[in-house]
Amino acid sequence: MKYTNSERGQSLVELAISIVILIYLLAGAVEFGIVFFQYVQLRDAAQEGALYGSMHPPADAAADTSAIENRAKNASTSPIKLATDPNVTVDVVVTDGQYCEGGSLEITVSYPHKVFMPFMSQFIGEFVNLDAVVTDTILTPICP
User: Fold this and answer.
1) Could you count the other beta carbons within 10 Å of the beta carbon of residue 7?
2) Domain spans in the chain, listed from the N-terminal domain onward
3) Distance of alpha carbon 130 from the chain centroid
4) CA neighbor of 40 nearest in space, from 74, 85, 86, 80
5) Residue pLDDT, tens place only, 85-130
6) What is the pTM of this model?
């Protein structure tokens, strides 16, 4: 079968359109993978902070929670350097107001992921806010 010039041109246009679509899909998959990896890192950091906080809870609402925050931030350095990145925030809240055994401690680690693929930001925005929340039970000290 012999193709005419117009048929060859049509095939080239179809290839160009389908390659653009495939590149968008591939870029989206790569971006999603990076965002997911960063979320897993934040969740692990929140779990580390919650574990530490369950054994060393703040004494009351006015107590300093920097030890718990530092433990969460120092849990990992890859892909985000949690300890040095100013965009990483760690919030510590005792959810039921009980600062002793049986109370609930909630750790939230947040990070705004900047979308690095220039054309992907048109679809999902310039930033994707990642929030990892872990709640743990306070184990010590024993309530009076």
Assistant:
1) 11
2) 5-137
3) 4
4) 80
5) 999 999 999 999 889 999 999 999 999 999 988 777 888 889 999 9
6) 0.86
